[in-house]
Amino acid sequence: MSALTRFLGDSPLKVILKLLVVSFLVGLVMNAFGWSPMDVYYGIQKFFIDLWNLGFHAIDRFLGYILLGAAIVVPAFILLRLANYRK
């Protein structure tokens, strides 16, 4: 068995035939839905951008809650420390 056959998993002619059949079927489905390769690329890109933004939006909301709570907690802490410092 040659290195090329080992790499491809079958004889080169069979692999080319399989790739042609699968490419035809995928092209048929993509044409039926009106998709182009760039539509698939932009869809994948948009998915990862939305995922990235969603993650940072969650962090932004989390930090917003911390800052909102800190606006009350930190001054109260300082006032309590000052009140206890005088004693």
Quickly count the domains: 2
Structural class: mainly alpha
Helicity range: over 70%
Largest sheet: none
- Distance linking N and C termini: 89 Å
Strand content: under 5%
Helix and strand arrangement:
Blueprint: H1 3-8, H2 12-33, H3 37-85
Architecture overview:
This protein has helices at 3-8, 12-33, 37-85. The chain is mainly alpha-helical. It has two domains: 1-35; 38-87.
Could you give a quick summary of the protein structure above?
The chain is mainly α and 87 residues long. The protein is 89% helix and 0% strand. The relative contact order is 0.04.
Supply the key terms.
mainly alpha; 89% helix; 87 residues; elongated; 3 helices
